[in-house]
Design a protein that fits this description.
Length: about 900
Amino acid sequence: MNVLMKDVMKVKRAVVMAAVMIMTALVAVAQPGGGPGGGPGGGPGGGPGGGFPGGRRPPMGNRDWSRMGDDQNAQQVKQKKKVKEGDTFKVVGSLRDSVSGEFLAFVNVAVLDSADSAFVKGAATNLDGLFEVEGIPAGSYLLRISAIGYQNRMVPFTVVNNTALGTLRVKPGATTLDAVEISAEKPLYAMDGEKMVYNVEDDPSIQTGTTEDALQNAPGVEVDVEGNVSLRGVSSVEIWINDKPSKLTEENLKTYLQTLPANALARIETITNPSAKYATDAEAVINIVTSAHIKSNQFVSFGVNGSNQPFVSPWVSYMWAKEKLSFNLFASGRYSRRENANEGWALRRRDNTAGGYDTTMSQTTADTSISSSLSGNVFMSLNYEIDSMSELSFDAGGMYSGSDSYTKRIMNQTFFLAGGDSILDYRIGDTSSAPRGFGHAGVDYTKKFDLEGHNLRLGANVGYSGNSGEEYYDREYTTYTSLDEHRYLLNSSNSVDVDFDARYNRPYSKDGELSYGLRMEYENSDASFDRWNDRDQTSVDSLRTYRFLNTTAEASADVNWTHRWGGFTLSSGLGATLDNESIDYQTTMPFADKQNKPGFSLRPSIHLTYRTEDMHNLKLNYSMRMKTPSATQESRFRRYGEDSYSTGNTNGLRDSYTHSVEAGWQKFFTAFGNVGVEAYGRLSTNEISNLTDAEFDEFLDRIVNYSVPYNMGTSWRYGGSLNLTYRPSGFFNVRLYANVYDYGYRMTYDRTDDFGNVSTRTDEAEKVSWSVRVNAWAKVFDQYQVHLSANYNSPTLSLMSERKARYSLNMGVRSDFFKRKLSVFVNVQDIFNWGGRYGSGSENTNPYYLSSTTNKMLNSRYISAGITLRFGKMELEKNAKDGSSEAGDTL
């Protein structure tokens, strides 16, 4: 209120001064000798008291000129009272270069709400530098002027009628030779080591939008109609804010991205191949760097999303911040139901004396399943800025869910035996329920030693999860009814994990820095699987009953070095992990196992980039990944299903090594977008992958298929990709990503046949695969966002198996109303129902176990919709704190 009164007084004084000057000029013109050439002292600067006879001011008489400003205020108040609710007005003005005086054409201007910097309307100047913004309600606003090569300018103004702002002069980006400080124009896109950088603050076309709008313009980034973020088609993306994980839940993060204005951002960094220093399990990282500090913030938002699939998900979010303290709370619930159908066939074969194969069993399968789930979660975070150089944050959350499913399966098996074929037909009914939950809490401390990136970050987290399940399994044979099975299954598990991480960043010059990281993690889990051959729990199924104890301790460290020479940037790093895994499989069967296995791995990497002044970007990267086999992969324990089992490789596995090389070129065009071409290669030796085969099992007393890990001798992937973005404006773009590669492998392994004979086998395969993805996004009439995405993935090859083609076409529309206080979206998923009509699946190409499965989601095509209501405001303190430092401000 005090601030408001001060602003009112300033306006009042300005009005009074303007009134006095106007009346003085009128009196001067009316007096004899006043005005130009009116006599001694007449005209401007004609002498002391110019404009008055003899240079003297005339007597005021009985009129109180000091009340002139009050009278004009009264007229404005009277005028405001005439404004009807819903009336809108026009704001006009012109822009000129403050040095040359030239009019500035095609410059973006944006009208922002003065309370929370929310975008209201926008326009661009014409050839004569004139702009016109229509549809502005009465109120207080800020006019943001942004143009490449010029300093941004904010002009406050008030609208009570049609408003003329006059000629506004904009300063060019200056060069100060005395201080040897040159302000050069930054390219809109650039490569910096492993990062692709989009300089949002230098993109005038997006300044009137939101952070979500800006993400749409970062190369390779897609935000769908529901606000989900992906990078180059990969959904495993971790969002960072100012070089730290956001730690926001999905819906809370969407609220943040949809409310923070784009003019509060410095840049967006995309990392498609994160180095060790990011310490993330995600396949990609998007780092949003702000140039504004959230001075105060209070948002309450709630909504509900749903579809005819069906699913429904209500949620509520609360975000509050005041100077140094911020609080964030989110809670949601979800109910969903899905219907799936699967069909497949399988052949088990063995060698014959003629050098070919004999079929020992053929099988056909068809099943339908219905699953439903009900879940809820809550998340909170608290951040406190101890001082301008230190910050403390705390987060905690939990989730509970329960799921129920029913599967009906019809199977036909034909066994080709020496004494005659045997045909088995049976039906399987499987009903299960699985409640589960988890909770976590963490604390982080950041200490900045300066604003140049010298900082220390410490973090500690603890988590707990508990799962349980109950299942009724019925197998009823058509002919051999004496073989009918009615099983009852129970399982439960719980785990506790604790981790600690630290990162120290130390620039040694303005062009280089060193980064050191340390992470320690401990996890302990206990799982029990109890099986009975009857519903009364009187006959224990010893083959499938067991207990599994697992303890893992891990320590990782990394060091990263970055240096810049002009347009060159060189980044190199080395990470190392030392771990120890203890397993204990407890069972009454003879394959119980207990062992302890230490492991060690290295992760060296080097990234070289070069950027030219005309926006050519080149990169050359190399990384090596070393992986040691886990204790489970070498365990003799067998995990049995109904007609199959999986086990470890008791002969031992070797460490695997993967060498990756990537070279790329990208060219960014101001008026077009970007074109990027990449070539890559990956060579793996001793890669660990699972092989599915068939053999006679002594415990099931029949031939069954099994899965066991092997070291593949050599595998490779060589290919190229095209990344094209057509972006004629900040609110429309079309993105094309195409990828083609050759994948193959060559391996040698020992195989035991049905009669116990061991032979050395060699298998090799090679296949060219390709994929294409097209995304279109447009924002029309300042509030409607239209999304369209289509993708196709050709069949892909893996170890003795092949995944079938996948494709989809989706479309959606979202709209914001009432200054984004209300958002509504409608999305159509899989428009042509390809997932329900054709589905996807896989084929096993092992000559001893051939199989094919097709998986269909019957309700693959569905319409989803959602509504979100938001209340509150966000007050930004521009440049009060620069979030572009290594450890900047967080929400």
